[in-house]
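## retry 2 of 3
previous attempt timed out at serialization; input unchanged, resubmitting
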Amino acid sequence: MIATVLVLFACTGNGQNKNKDKMSDSTQVISRTEEEWRKILSPEQFYVLRQKGTDSPFTGKYYLNKEKGMYSCAACGNELFSSDMKFDSDCGWPSFDKEIAGGKIKKITDYSHGMVRTEIICAKCGSHLGHLFDDGPTSTHLRYCVNSTSVDFKK
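## retry succeeded, writing output
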């Protein structure tokens, strides 16, 4: 009986498994303390993803990326954009005209820096991705302006 309970506990985990950085269940919300995030993310990722920082314009590793693939949240692996959604905006950051369906991104009104903008965050882990603007050149008229540090790319 005790062995069965121990096996069940080991299989379900206790919610503290630090090796599950990139969770596969896209519907499960990740809840971690900022200290836990600090241990998982690089200092640059922590600054951008958790402290709402930004990459310097025209410097991000995905700004000029033209390869086909998927962009996912660098903190949790939640798929956010495909390369088919990416366009050249000349704004200095990777830009997308829409997000993957399924509520993968949350939008929050951002009043920081004396402006009113729409912040975009990962719906799965709450990490800062960038901002959404309605000045895009495609048919959606949207520009998801994303920090390269906020995403990973997989061909």
